[in-house]
Design goal:
alpha/beta; Rossmann fold; Dehydroquinate synthase-like, alpha domain; 2 domains; 6-stranded parallel β-sheet; binds nicotinamide-adenine-dinucleotide; ADH_Fe/GldA; Alcohol_dehydrogenase_Fe
Length: about 375
């Protein structure tokens, strides 16, 4: 076991069914902006939470698309500045939470997200508004990370931004909010959480606190994702999946992710795959090569999850994905052999790829992609 490591996760976590209707107790000040997505506004979920905040001046911003653009961030920031917001609540999947994180900062920092992100020259200096994150997908763990992921449409790239101002003050985790997730989103976001957990576990930055969280997350997902997929309002399965997403988020917030996430960015921006699909389509292939650098550790994980070997764990994960109608070959999301060199080049440009426990160079990455074409 590694005996040299650091751990820092400052968000208060409040996990219980119904907790989202009790968010007001965490809010100081009166002006509250709830940043959510069109589905949660249309179905009244955002309003029900806003209405529970007696005595607060609550406004809503709902123009958030999946893989949120810098333009949506700037629009939400304008709304936050106009109302002189005291508290930003991110309510939704990773897309809404990520927008909430930077908007809470931009409320008191001038300019556009482009000034601070991907080549921008300014530094976010302060965050006065408090930040509450309430996830409605069991996937990203964004509520407990200091990461935001934004799409720069001008450059056609999607990139993470890491900043300690992005830690939420409070993560309110309410499994009841996930009962409405359709089966396909349950599957893809759940396998995103699986990727976070396994990438934290095999990561070159792995450490014992995160290993424990990652292992629990992986076990929860293997045991409960199929039930959540088939029975949307199964309380036990939904709670276990949201806990898995939370633990996986905390784990990768310390270690960062690896090759799976590095390759997911071009698969989303250029082939339109949702984040969970873009990650999990390469997951079995990465499990197969993980023994190159972490043989014993991966064998012990396979055994903990009930498999005889790492290869049978990879097969089991692939079968699970197929049983949930998820793509397991790149051609299923529109990738052709002629695209592999470009995907390799973009993936190799993300420094996290070198946190993978295997040799990652143009040849090996291209070979991995070709093996699952
Ligand atoms: P998402 O937020 O893009 O939402 C996907 C879809 O699910 C949307 O159409 C949304 O309306 C719908 N949805 C959300 N909650 C629902 C519910 N309860 N019932 C029914 N429909 C619901 O998806 P996501 O996978 O949660 O987030 C993906 C984004 O998060 C990507 O941009 C990804 O890069 C980012 N991400 C961020 C982090 C982080 O640490 N900040 C980690 C991983 C991923």
């Amino acid at each position: 076991m590694k005996q040299s490591f650091d751990y820092y996760m400052p968000a208060k976590v409040c996990f219980r069914a119904g907790a989202s209707k009790d968010a007001a107790r965490f809010i100081k000040g009166s002006n509250v902006l709830i940043i959510s997505d069109p589905f949660l506004l249309k179905t009244g979920v955002a309003e029900a939470i806003g209405n529970s905040m007696t005595g607060k001046n609550v406004a809503y911003f709902g123009e958030i698309e999946p893989n949120p653009s810098c333009e949506s961030v700037d629009k939400a920031a304008a709304a936050a500045r106009e109302m002189k917001t005291d508290c930003i609540i991110g309510l939704g999947g990773g897309s809404a939470l990520d927008v909430a994180k930077i908007v809470a900062c931009l409320a008191d920092n001038e300019g556009s997200i482009y000034d601070y992100y991907a080549g921008g020259t300014r530094t976010l200096s302060d965050r006065k508004a408090s930040l509450i994150c309430i996830p409605t997908t069991a996937g990203t763990g964004s509520e407990v990370t200091n990461v935001g992921v934004y799409t720069n449409k001008k450059a056609g790239i999607k990139m993470p931004m890491v900043n300690d101002l992005f830690w939420a003050d409070v993560a309110i985790i309410d499994p009841e909010l996930t009962y409405t997730l359709p089966a396909a989103i349950t599957a893809s976001t759940g396998m995103d959480a699986f990727c976070h957990a396994i990438e934290a576990y095999w990561n070159k930055n792995s450490q014992p606190i995160c290993d424990m969280m990652a292992m629990t997350a992986l076990k929860n997902i293997m045991e409960h994702i199929k039930t959540a997929y088939e029975e949307p309002d199964n309380k036990e399965a939904r709670g276990a999946m949201l806990a898995a997403s939370l633990f996986a988020g905390i784990a990768f917030s310390q270690t960062r992710t690896t090759g799976i996430h590095a390759l997911s960015f071009p698969l989303t921006t250029e082939f339109g795959a949702s984040h969970g699909i873009a990650c999990s389509v390469t997951l079995p292939a990465f499990i197969r090569i993980s023994t190159q650098g972490e043989k014993e550790k991966m064998e012990s994980l396979a055994s903990y999850l009930g498999y005889e070997s790492v290869q049978s764990l990879a097969d089991g994960v692939e079968e699970l994905m197929v049983s949930m109608k998820m793509p397991v070959r790149l051609h299923e999301i529109g990738v052709k052999e002629s695209d592999l060199a470009h995907i390799t080049e973009v993936g190799m440009g993300a420094p996290i790829i070198q946190l993978t426990p295997a040799i990652m160079n143009e040849e090996t990455v291209h070979g991995l992609l070709k093996s699952i074409l």
